[in-house]
Recover the amino acids of this structure.
């Protein structure tokens, strides 16, 4: 029996459509910069927010009306939920989904029981993938909800908690491989500290690196060829997390010899918490060859926490897609809607409205970004600003033909630096607005 009988498959109807359950800009087959939109955007549904989010907050319990849910979670309920999730994704038209192990199956009294529960649901997920053609973008392990991880998982002061986390990731990697997942994500929900007086930071970071190396080694052993991703987040729930931002993660990966195995999964709201814009995080990752995937959401600048709202700001999606196109796309990563409907948006139909709006916003951002790149005005202004490096002494410096002494001689002969050129910031901002 259908969980969403009132919803037909969401279709592209064009910008003139007034249908709230239709795409106005997302046409999966439309080619943008040589690829269909579906491949440029690689949309994914986040299982945890869409099908496990209950709408609870620190001041009250969940508000969501979910007819398919039972009062007590069980394997049977998890199986029913999985079938509903695939009905939702099939009608929405997203090609991918993502999950934590604990999203899809309940935890048992022992690790062995937990693994059996997961296997039972994975069997159904595999059936639904084969039926619909929807694929797993990435899997991961929830190493933050259970009290055993109160001090972290890979960075815990408790060696048994570390060992349990390793066993859990072993199983999550096996499941991700079985389901054909093309990525695996490390997100350190509690990998950080609250107080440095009781924290051996170097030891904890060393342990995190050992943990990731063991995961890479086991993936090779079982033949998992997917891409590993490391997700930056600066704080919340800990005061400081070791995966603070893109630059911190890249430094960690290089310092511990993981740079050939792991790229980054960038989230908009996490960038905000780090005091950055998402385009800054994408630029840092992309320019260093570490851009892997994106968790698509946004935050509320008036609130100081990770609100995980659906992105509807066209300026934001344009900036994101401009960076994605600049660095050659996201595959095998994608755009995963790590976003949740508001506590007050509690009816099942709101899940469709949220995803349709986010997908349309990114489709518009993609088309605008492609138009900006094709027009070339912004690129031309950038080239003009750095023209002094394209010839003469600038080109010689970049080629390694100078040192301090030779450059002192150059300036003594010249007398002073050439005049600076304007940054043209206001002109650039006006040009961008022409496209929106």
């Amino acid at each position: 029996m259908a969980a969403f009988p009132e919803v037909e498959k969401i279709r592209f109807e064009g910008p003139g459509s007034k249908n709230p359950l239709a795409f106005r800009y997302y046409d999966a087959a439309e080619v943008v910069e040589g690829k269909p939109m579906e491949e440029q955007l690689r949309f994914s549904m986040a299982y945890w927010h869409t099908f496990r989010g209950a709408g609870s907050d620190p001041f009250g319990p969940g508000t969501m009306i979910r007819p398919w849910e039972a009062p007590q979670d069980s394997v049977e309920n998890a199986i029913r939920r999985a079938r509903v999730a695939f009905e939702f994704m099939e009608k929405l038209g997203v090609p991918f989904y993502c999950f934590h192990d604990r999203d899809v199956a309940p935890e048992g009294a022992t690790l062995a029981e937990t693994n059996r529960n997961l296997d039972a649901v994975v069997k159904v997920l595999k059936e639904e993938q084969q039926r619909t053609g929807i694929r797993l973008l990435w899997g991961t392990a929830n190493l933050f909800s259970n009290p055993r991880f109160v001090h972290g998982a890979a960075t815990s002061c408790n060696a048994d908690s570390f060992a349990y986390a390793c066993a859990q990731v072993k199983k999550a990697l096996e499941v991700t491989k079985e389901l054909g997942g093309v990525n695996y994500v490390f997100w350190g929900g509690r990998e950080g500290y609250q107080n440095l007086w009781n924290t051996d930071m170097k030891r904890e970071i060393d342990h995190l690196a050992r943990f990731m190396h063991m995961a890479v080694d086991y993936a090779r052993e079982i033949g998992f060829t997917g891409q590993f991703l490391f997700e930056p987040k600066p704080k919340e729930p800990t005061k400081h997390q070791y995966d603070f931002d893109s630059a911190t993660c890249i430094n960690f990966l290089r310092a511990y010899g993981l740079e050939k195995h792991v790229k980054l999964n960038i989230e908009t709201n996490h960038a905000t918490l780090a005091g950055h814009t998402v385009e800054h995080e994408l630029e840092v990752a992309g320019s260093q060859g570490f851009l892997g995937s994106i968790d698509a959401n946004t935050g509320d600048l008036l609130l100081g926490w990770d609100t995980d709202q659906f992105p509807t700001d066209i300026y934001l999606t344009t900036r994101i897609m401009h960076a994605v196109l600049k660095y050659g796309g996201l595959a095998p990563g994608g755009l995963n809607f790590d976003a949740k409907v508001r506590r007050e948006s509690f009816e099942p139909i709101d899940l469709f409205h949220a995803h349709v709006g986010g997908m349309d916003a990114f489709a518009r951002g993609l088309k605008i970004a492609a138009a900006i790149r094709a027009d070339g005005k912004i690129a031309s202004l950038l080239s003009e600003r750095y023209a002094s490096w394209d010839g003469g002494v600038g080109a010689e410096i970049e080629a390694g033909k100078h040192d301090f002494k030779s450059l002192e001689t150059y300036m003594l002969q010249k007398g002073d630096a050439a005049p600076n050129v304007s940054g043209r910031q206001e002109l650039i901002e006006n040009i961008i607005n022409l496209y929106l």
Observations:
- The longest helix spans residues 349-375.
- DSSP finds 16 helices and 14 strands in the chain.
- The chain has a mean pLDDT of 97.
- The radius of gyration is 24 Å.
